[in-house]
TrEMBL record:
It is found in: Nucleus. This is Histone deacetylase 11. Its EC number is 3.5.1.98. It comes from Anopheles merus. It comes from the Eukaryota. InterPro entries: HDAC_classIV, HDACs, His_deacetylse_dom, His_deacetylse_dom_sf, Ureohydrolase_dom_sf. Its main location: nucleus. Gene3D superfamilies: Histone deacetylase domain. Pfam families: Hist_deacetyl (PF00850). One of its GO terms (biological process) is epigenetic regulation of gene expression. Residues 20-29 have a biased composition (Acidic residues). Interacts with HDAC6. GO terms for cellular component: histone deacetylase complex.
Length: 361
């Protein structure tokens, strides 16, 4: 069952350097300041992606079960299915800048990413500690900065396009807080999106975070502990990482799952608790962290949800938002099976076929 829990610019740019002369010039050109906002249009499909999302460092990424090419694989499948016709149909985000990151992150944390040892711990790839940091920046942190920028752009698209939804084919770094990364999550894109939306001046006053990744979203929970404008529904396997009891105090509705929970139990609890949370909090924006590490066979999630269960899950969340005219942004978060990309693509196509993605034919 679900239950309520009550609780509560003089920066050194070297940590944002990509390690090449050409890319360093780009960093100098922005000066660490806010990037120009990309225009939002009703005529574009509010899917956010660019090839730079892919993490590559001489095969070392294969030492972590995360599919570093997941976003690109989903994008190709969506093109094959005809949902995306050309690259110009979707949004390509800018890399988030240092100044934008400092809206949430501490300078001390950003500086810590200059050390490959610290990044190796966050990425959970021990051999990274022997890799020069300039290469770590270019091959791991820079793609993550693009994905973080993608989460902010997708949130804007969901809010400003008039379509009421957007999907970032990346992001969902829910283990990262303002001063600590972990679990392959180096930047706090969810906290950043919350702060951006609440300060947007567009009437967003109550944000519901629906975190359906198999792991507890302890990063943004620590950041948003005292913010009553945010309601957190977190549904996770309570016997796996991170088991963060302090962060748990921020969860307004927890759905703790046992290992090997199946479709029937999972969907029953989700439908009850999400409906309950929306009725109680009456949000005017939803951030949906749609991890697919819930799939049966995932080496880290340890749940037993089928691909059909994931499709039904996503459909219920989108329908719940659309029927109430609540803008929703979907972030991909975790998913450690190579089959995750096809499951996600099939789910997005199903959303289109069920008329849950307005304007997408």
């Amino acid at each position: 069952m679900c239950f309520r829990l009550n609780g509560a610019a003089s920066a050194d740019q070297s940590s944002m350097s990509s390690g090449t002369d050409e890319e360093d010039k780009e960093d100098e050109a922005t000066g660490g300041k806010l990037t120009a906002e990309l225009p939002i249009s009703r005529d574009r499909i509010p899917i956010v992606y660019r090839p730079e999302y892919g993490v590559r460092f001489l095969g070392l990424q294969k030492l972590h079960p995360f599919d570093a090419a997941k976003g690109g694989n989903i994008y190709r499948l969506l093109k094959t299915n005809g949902l995306i016709q050309t690259d110009g149909d979707v949004y390509a985000p800018n890399e988030i800048t240092l100044e934008e990151l400092l809206a949430v992150h501490t300078q001390r944390y950003i500086d810590s990413l200059k050390w490959s040892l610290n990044v190796a711990k966050i990425a959970e790839i021990p051999p990274l500690l022997f890799v020069p940091n300039c290469f770590v920046q270019r091959s791991y942190l820079r793609p993550m900065r693009y994905q973080t920028g993608g989460s902010l752009l997708a949130a804007r698209a969901a809010l400003e396009s008039g379509l009421g939804w957007a999907i970032n084919l990346g992001g969902g770094f829910h283990h990262c807080s303002a001063d600590r990364g972990g679990g392959f999550c180096p930047y706090a894109d969810i906290t950043l999106a919350v702060k951006m939306l609440l300060s947007s001046g567009k009437g967003i006053e109550r944000i519901l975070i629906v975190d359906l990744d198999a792991h507890q979203g302890n990063g943004y929970e620590r950041d948003l502990m005292e913010d009553r404008r945010v309601f957190i529904l977190d549904m996770y396997n309570y016997r796996i990482y991170p088991r963060d009891q302090h962060a748990k105090l921020a969860i307004r509705r927890a759905v703790e799952l046992k290992p090997h929970t199946d479709d029937e139990e999972y969907l029953r609890k989700l439908k009850h608790c999400l409906s309950q949370s929306i009725a109680e909090f009456e949000p005017n924006f939803i951030i949906y962290n749609a991890g697919t590490d819930i799939l049966k066979g995932d080496p880290l999630g340890l749940l037993d949800i089928t691909p059909e269960g994931v499709v039904e899950r996503d459909e219920f969340v989108f329908r719940s938002a659309l029927e109430r005219s609540i803008p929703l942004v979907m972030l991909l978060s975790g998913g450690y099976l190579r089959s995750s990309a096809r499951v996600i693509a099939n789910s997005i196509v199903n959303l289109r076929d069920k008329a849950l993605l307005p304007t997408v034919q």
